[in-house]
Amino acid sequence: MRAMAFVVKHWAKRRQMNEPFNHTLSSYAWVLLVINFLQQRSPPILPCLQQYRRNDYNQNNKDEADAGEEELPWAEGYDCYFYPHAHLLANYGKENKETLGELLFSFFEHYANHFDFDASVVSVRMGKYLTRREKGWPNEYDHLFCIEDPFNLSHDLSRVLTNFTFYLTKKELLRAYRSLNQGGTLENICTPFRPRTGSKT
After folding, report:
1. Which of 69, 71, 167, 176 is 20 to 30 A distant from 184 in Cα terms?
2. Residues of the chain with pLDDT under 70
3. For 166, phi and psi rounded to 5 degrees?
């Protein structure tokens, strides 16, 4: 996950696709896309930690839970629970034998050709895609590439996108996929973006 997130962030930076002040996705958003992608591989490479959270919390606080007094930790309106036993998941995902190169190719292929931008919401919290109906996020200009913030659940990280930069994001994902599909290298897809100045070179 660390290596793949690094490569995707590097690609996004080189292609000027990680500058929220210029209405493109943040590095944080790109990392969430990588995490969610790896959660949904078959077999999965990353777990969804929220699946463990309530059972773990109940076991550690059984008396309170039995009394109906369970309280998960919140701070200033945000859920701040974290899974404290990450060492138990050290071998999670070992059954998946895909290489980093194969995963990167599949990542770009998926978002270039298969992801349903009109209907799906990326949710690391759930380890899958939610529907726009489930989130209450209509298909409007401020919800173009729905990526749920796993902490602030009302925050769609795609809200920085404009129609134009949304189009550019999809175009860059497609460019990366096509280049790799035609035998291109990581260096090829990470060629620095240079805006055209009127010439066709």
Report:
1. 167
2. 53-73, 195-201
3. -65, -45
